[in-house]
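Tokenise the fold.
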Amino acid sequence: MGGSRARGLIRVNGRAKARALSVAVMALATTMACTTTDTPAPATPSRAFTPAAVSWKDCGDGFQCGKLEVPLDYADPGGRKIPLSLIKLPASGTKKGSLLTNPGGPGGSGVNFIRQTGRSFGDSLRRDFDIIGFDPRGVGASDPVECLTDGQLDAYLETDMSPDTEAEMSKLEKVSRGFAEGCEKKSGDLLPYVGTKDAARDMDAIRAAVGDEKLTYYGASYGTYLGAWYAEQFPQNVRALVLDGALDPSLTAAETNIQQAKGFETALRAFTEDCVKQSDCPLGTDVEAGMKKVTALLTQADRQALKNSADARDVDQSLVTWGLATPLYQKEAWPLLRGALAQAMQGDGTALLRFADLLVEREQNGTFSSQTESNMAVNCRDKPNPDVAGFKAEAQKAAAAAPNFGEFIVWNTLPCAFWPVAAAEEPRALRAAGSAPILVVGTTRDPATPYQWSENLASQLENGHLLTYDGDGHTAYLSGPPCIRNAVDAYLTATTLPAANTTCT
């Protein structure tokens, strides 16, 4: 969510999140010496920087891993370098090129994504292309942003994100300021260089380092924003880009937060409409009454936290909201959400807590990945944010537009009000003038990246083309119907676009 933000609540991690959720769904159901190969010589370098070829080493289960050093500051290409961590699933047939991927976030590990889902890409893609993932700068194993201890992250995530009193507001400001100050203290030298524009420049360095003349790319969720910025900066290097579950780069941070919150409200209603038809639905048989029961649960958790049998944490309103949002990413998780809500309405928040931990990548031993800190660092760098007074006004608007998620999503980005580094860009439409055709895929009831964003991006791009999935869940390619998969595979392998106005169900 987020983070996703896109922003606020959601770490928008595309199918990496959904794939992890699939594994968690199964788990919850049961309980509720290396050879080295070098790529061809690098192709056209990225700007003034000439990358070295990647030395790939076997890293188990048919994958190869490597590192690529890129400039911390592209304005000083001969200065300090940072290592990018890469992974490759080699083409199963005669290689025609590479498919670079990004699962979203910002903050999602592309290395983990390919380990989990690399073999889920279409057979024709797997045959003709190396499937490559990478941890973007500041993420995972690529010089990750560090801000807080694990205990401090727990405290931040449990902070009341719907402040009703001056005391709650004061605490929210304190932890948000502490988040920003922690990032400056631990990663201050990195913060100016973790924005999306720099990560897109890294993608061109990867393209050159693996020997591709032009880029073939699949990006999900925030990965669409990254892909759009690549096309904006390097339109002549675009071969085929799929942007699945798009962000709208023209929106302000405030507009993004509110529209994303409304997207989660839409997904929650879709879940409720389905739930009331099921015999085990804890929300009753009426949609409107069911929605009110969800709101009542959140209100009750704000007054008194739910219990849980996993650890000593109380499942307060913030954790309930995280846990409620997570299964909305994937329709296959809706039966488990019904069970989790039934438990929560009896005062047991254990299942919702497990969903919350999955979303923020918290392990059962209390350790976190770099996702939460990286997510905040990229989002605060990418777009301007208001001061505290501006956040208050934004939160009021969001609460009116999306009563269950709006306020929470807005306040979750408050550290950006105290960020030590200025935003890199004002929001604007990205045209990628002169690029090859770019395929944008949108899902009509996507919770984290509303369908309108895909429509908008496809229209903003000079050579954008929209493919629609009339369905539920976050992004479409790796979990959608054959119609979507076949269209994407045909485009990525042969640059054959689907017919205009194609909608898959």
Remarks:
- The chain is about 40% helix and 15% strand.
- Residues 253-275 form the longest helix (23 residues).
- Residues 69 and 82 are 5 Å apart (CA to CA).
